Amino acid sequence: MSEPSAESPPKSAAKAFADGLRSAFGSVFFYVLLGNYLGIGALAHEFNFSVLWMVLSTILIWAAPAQLILISTLGTSTLIEVAIAVTLSSVRFLPMVAGLLPTLRAEGTRQRDLVLPMHFTAISVWVEGLRLAGLLPRAERVAFYNGLGTGLMFSAAVASAGGYYLAATLPPLLAAALLFFTPMAVLMVSARNSRTLLDGLSFGLGLVVWPAVAAMKLGLELMWTGLIAGTIAYVVHRVREGVR
Amino acid sequence: MSFAMEPYLALLLIGFLPSEAWRWLGIVLGRGLDENSEIILWVRAVATALIAGVVARIVLIPPGALAGVPLSVRLVALGGGFLAFLFIRRSAFAGVLAGEALLIAGALAFGT
């Protein structure tokens, strides 16, 4: 496998990429993504997207929340509203990427070498990447991370298409169960990951505020839900911090 | 304004771009960003609430086959799944399983 080139040190890139791929298939996220994207693929079918569109959205956007927003609102909301909601939901990538860079950068890493690994950066790849790449020699980390990202994205892309076809072929009861999987899983993962009052409160308030905002028919429902519920949660968090 | 027009253009312009831009910005700004700064905390709260809004939307105004399941069954399944999560060692797996079981049982009992 190892073909020495002028660019990379002898044993490096291909092997590190393969190691990354192998880590992806051994990761618990491989199965989490499989389940989650089966559900999202099914939703895409019910909202009348094509299977190609669904798979492309997984590869290009690579952010389950943004994809969910796009799929569930594109047909009924204005484009501006969808754009704002997607933008807000993806802000998290900024601190994630910034936090990952010190781990991935090596001697002579160029800015453009980082574009691909940063595209692979989503919660799953980021968590596993931070944990595993940090254990490797610096020169191998970018290739390893790319392998990891490729493997996990592959599982999600296959599941996207799989869920799409399942929704088309399953009897209504099972299709309903598949469509219910994503909201249920998002609720569970958010609940488990909410280590602080702020996270839990933001999510809980969001669940309650959306119906209220939707009933008012103001438009921009997701944006208002985020701003109102998120800000209330943040203020509560600040007040409690102040008390302590 | 419907996706029947240009779904692929929408995918690129209001799906890919607004997500990818933050990743690029992360590379450009790089270090010097405090993960726990107040603005980041607030933005994370807004984003979390927004995702909760998406969950509420899918459960309350569900697509396709899920719309055949009565609203009360959908709500009980979501709430019951959450309770199972709380009482079974905060296991997300147990929560999803319980929620799905309630949804299927409810749909069988009250029709899809």
Radius of gyration of chain B: 19 Å
Shape of chain B: flat
Backbone structural class of chain A: mainly alpha
Supply the helix-strand structural class of chain B. mainly alpha
Q: What's the main sheet of chain A like? A: none
Could you name the ranges of chain A where pLDDT drops below 50 across 5 or more consecutive residues? Answer: 1-8
In helices, the fraction of residues of chain B equals: over 70%
How many β-strand stretches of chain A?
0
Q: What is the element string of chain A, with H for helices and E for strands?
A: HHHHHHHHHHHH
Briefly say what this structure is.
Chain A is 78% helix and 0% strand.
Structure, explained:
The complex is a heterodimer of chains A (244) and B (112). Chain A folds into two domains: 12-183, no CATH class; 190-244, no CATH class. Chain A is built from twelve helices and no strands. Chain A has helices spanning 12-26, 28-46, 51-60, 64-73, 79-89, 93-104, 115-120, 123-133, 138-169, 172-193, 197-216, 221-243. Chain B has one domain (7-110). Chain B is flat, with a radius of gyration of 19 Å. Chain B contains four helices and no strands. The chains are: A mainly alpha (244), B mainly alpha (112). Chains A and B meet through helix 2, helix 3, helix 4, helix 5 and helix 6 of A and helix 1, helix 2, helix 3 and helix 4 of B.
